[in-house]
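Field guide to reading this record: the first block holds the primary sequence, the second block holds the structure written as discrete tokens, and the final block holds curator observations. Each block starts with its own label. This record concerns (wild Malaysian banana) hypothetical protein, catalogued under organism Musa acuminata subsp. malaccensis.

BLOCK 1 — SEQUENCE
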Amino acid sequence: MLLRSFIHHKFLVCTILSVISLRNAAAQHEGEPYAMRISCGAPKDVTTKPTNTLWKKDFGYTGGKQANATIPSFIEPQLKTLRYFPLSDGPENCYDITDIPRGHYEVRLFFALIADPNFDNEPMFDISIEGTQIHSLKSGWSNNDEQSFVEALVFVTNASFTACFHSTGHGDPSILSIEILQVDDTAYYSGPLWGKGTVLRTAKRLTCGTGKSAFDEDYGGSHWGGDRFWLAISYFQDSGHSISTEHSISMTSISPNFYPEKLYQSAIVGSDLQPDLSFEMEVEPNRNYSVWLHFSEIDPRITGEGERTFDISLNGDIAFENINIIGMTGGSNAALVLNTTVEVSGKALTIVLRGTNGSHAIINAIEVFEVISVESKTSADDVGTLQILKSSLGLPRRLGWNGDPCVPQQHPWSGVDCQFDSKSGNWVIDGLGLDNQGLKGFLPNDIAKLQHLQSINFSENNLYGAIPSSLGTIAGLQTLDLSYNQLNGSIPESLGQLTLLQILNLNGNLLSGRVPASLGGLPLHRASFNFTGNAGLCGIPGLPSCGPRLSVAAKIGIAFGASFVFLLAVVAALIWWKRRENILRAQRIAAAREAPYAKARTHFARDVQMTKHHRPRDQVRSHTLIMDPT
Ligand SMILES: *[C@@H]1O[C@H](CO)[C@@H](O)[C@H](O)[C@H]1NC(C)=O
Ligand SMILES: *[C@@H]1O[C@H](CO)[C@@H](O)[C@H](O)[C@H]1NC(C)=O
Ligand SMILES: *[C@@H]1O[C@H](CO)[C@@H](O)[C@H](O)[C@H]1NC(C)=O
Ligand SMILES: *[C@@H]1O[C@H](CO)[C@@H](O)[C@H](O)[C@H]1NC(C)=O
Ligand SMILES: *[C@@H]1O[C@H](CO)[C@@H](O)[C@H](O)[C@H]1NC(C)=O
Ligand SMILES: *[C@@H]1O[C@H](CO)[C@@H](O)[C@H](O)[C@H]1NC(C)=O
Ligand SMILES: *[C@@H]1O[C@H](CO)[C@@H](O)[C@H](O)[C@H]1NC(C)=O
Ligand SMILES: *[C@@H]1O[C@H](CO)[C@@H](O)[C@H](O)[C@H]1NC(C)=O
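BLOCK 2 — STRUCTURE
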């Protein structure tokens, strides 16, 4: 009696709680969650059956090509096209989706194979979201249903979302679809490790028992659940059998995770012969995993608290002791969700449910997430400057330069060296090594916005134009190698301010003018420089001298003198030209009249007279011209 009233009481509390959380959920989630689905490579919007899901036509990609798709797994949405990224488009390519409302999202990317009889390569590549690498496709993924997609829970904090695909030299990344589905802000809250600093990648999601593999959508689940995919499993390696119920289950579809009721209507249970349940999965070693276990007491023979008790251990360590579902939920046919985080050093994660006091273990569903620490990003200013450089330098397409320059750390942009700046908590650029890369462009002034640069090597390219004087403001610059380009103009004075400069190679360019005196002193600091192979440079030992130095007054004097001489020369030339014109004209006239003397150059005075006579207007003009200088 006491026990019953206790159970009753607990049940009431739970019911009230669940009503409250349902209310909260309703208040928090008026309307539909945000959803963006992209059918990669599709020229127009697509809807798929049976749920009439809308997929936007392809957009937001940084490169790649469209192709027809071969779908490797029954799990994948029935889409017909994909986008693939040949290496000639660069080693990293991305989808940059903007105007995503801030929030918490389940992101899912499906992969596919190019439909082409001559194309049987299974590509292997890495995937990053917002600069954090979340997955590395393994050989054989296209023969494994669960591996034909990657899914993760991420926070979008800046209205934009970037997913990148990184070539690893094993074929062209090929993407079937991208889904960005909003979930509850506190979905899968698991304790202190949880939050904006982590991404949860789905490593396993199973529905246990008689249920069919399905999406939340197929189960009639809430859209706030993120349309998870539940792979059906009806027994474990050597243990367990399926049971199911038609009873409705309480405490389902509630905030924050909105699990569909269907999950709790089937289960795997132990038997007399094998009361324990044991599930083992392969994992990446040395990671933390967030484990979510789902229960409901659906066996009609178990009605009392304590009739089924079991312990749960993860890789041998007890994670939950004395679980008794009815005691914890207040009755049969009510959902119970347990979560814990476990650090795994080996390659396997084993979940064992061990019946105690002779009872059999039970489980309804299992979710395992890899907890991935979010990478710090590259300083937004530096990223902006690199984008300017990308176009100014005429960076070849094969270098890519998409996504974040420094992260994921496994895939930085080629030719870019990064350093972590603990003061700002961002990555910054400290080196540019783009020597011999076929650059065809100019050095923009903005390059100096990369204030952390220590080394620049643009040697052996086709850079033209001037050396920007702004380079002199990069205080930490130690190496500046611009040799073997077509840079012209003079060497900026400002380079003399670079007190840490150790190597300055400007040889093999079209530079001219005086080498700044300040640079001449650099070798004293053990710096090495090379100015040779520039026809027009002068002024330091080893180069031609620039001629005498002149005072400002002298320079002005020379300038004046030069202008005067120039003016004289112009006038003289004009006189000579006009006279010659007149002579030629007179000769023509004379020739026409067959005058015997008209050909002689020395008789120009008479020619002019003759001309005067016949063409009065010309005469005035030529007269003025002749008279002026005298
Ligand atoms: C894709 O398949 C369609 C026919 O289903 C064909 O018309 C089209 O040319 C194919 N596209 C490519 C890029 O192979
Ligand atoms: C957010 O995005 C804007 C442009 O979309 C950018 O200017 C800004 O730096 C970003 N902020 C952060 C913290 O990434
Ligand atoms: C997961 O477990 C922690 C305690 O380990 C708990 O604080 C948290 O509320 C649980 N999350 C959910 C969504 O139930
Ligand atoms: C796992 O999480 C703990 C904090 O709970 C942390 O100290 C540890 O470094 C993490 N392990 C890995 C491999 O990330
Ligand atoms: C197991 O049964 C014993 C006696 O029947 C009882 O004292 C004990 O509390 C039970 N343990 C659990 C975990 O229910
Ligand atoms: C710059 O690159 C060129 C060409 O690869 C190389 O020969 C040279 O040593 C590099 N300069 C410096 C200072 O390392
Ligand atoms: C440098 O070369 C560019 C063309 O590449 C030309 O427009 C510019 O006038 C040249 N400057 C000097 C100082 O010769
Ligand atoms: C300077 O550059 C020239 C070619 O322009 C090269 O022959 C010479 O060896 C270089 N000098 C030094 C000290 O590197």
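BLOCK 3 — OBSERVATIONS
The chain is about 20% helix and 30% strand.
Residues 141 and 235 are 23 Å apart (CA to CA).
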